[in-house]
Specification:
The chain is α+β, with helices and mostly antiparallel strands and 149 residues long. Helices cover 28% and strands 18% of the residues. The chain contains four helices and six strands, in the order E-H-H-H-E-E-E-E-E-H.
Length: 149
């Protein structure tokens, strides 16, 4: 089981109010250590720039939900790498995740896990883990990004 830490990702400090579907923005802000507003703008820019060219039925909004292709592009731009869980380890448990900072993809939800502690608005029961993103290494951060927003 994961320990839990309530964390809004800087949403309240950015002056945002209400209950919304901003889990993508919160998870990235927490795990990557980027201010909430910067991630919010980055996701919005990525959605406007790329979704109109694709098959999406509308444009994602960082406040109400983001298409998977959009947040994958944004995380790729930041250098984060997608990783599938090992067979038989597709449950959200600390022992199924690497140490350090990761962003986990669950059913219809993203969340940040920092050193085995779930940082989110509420505690999740152990549920299916579809995969997770791991941050770039120091060497990868020094290399210019291969994709553009």
């Amino acid at each position: 089981m994961l320990d839990f830490q309530y964390n809004d990702g800087g949403r309240a400090a950015a002056g945002r109010k209400g209950i919304v579907g901003d889990c993508v923005v919160r998870a990235i802000a927490i795990a990557a250590g980027i201010p909430y507003e910067d991630v919010y703008r980055g996701i919005g820019l990525t959605a406007r720039r790329w979704e109109r060219k694709g098959r999406c039925k509308g444009v994602s909004h960082p406040r109400h939900g983001v298409y998977r292709q959009t947040y994958q592009r944004y995380l790729g731009y930041l250098g984060w790498r997608w990783t599938l869980p090992q067979p038989g380890r597709a449950i959200l448990l600390a022992e199924n995740l690497p140490a350090g900072r990761v962003i986990v993809r669950l059913a219809g939800h993203l969340a940040a896990v920092l050193d085995g502690v779930l940082h989110d608005l509420d505690m999740r029961e152990p549920e299916r883990l579809y995969g997770y993103w791991i941050p770039p290494t120091q060497a990868e951060r020094l290399r210019p990004a291969e994709t553009n927003l």
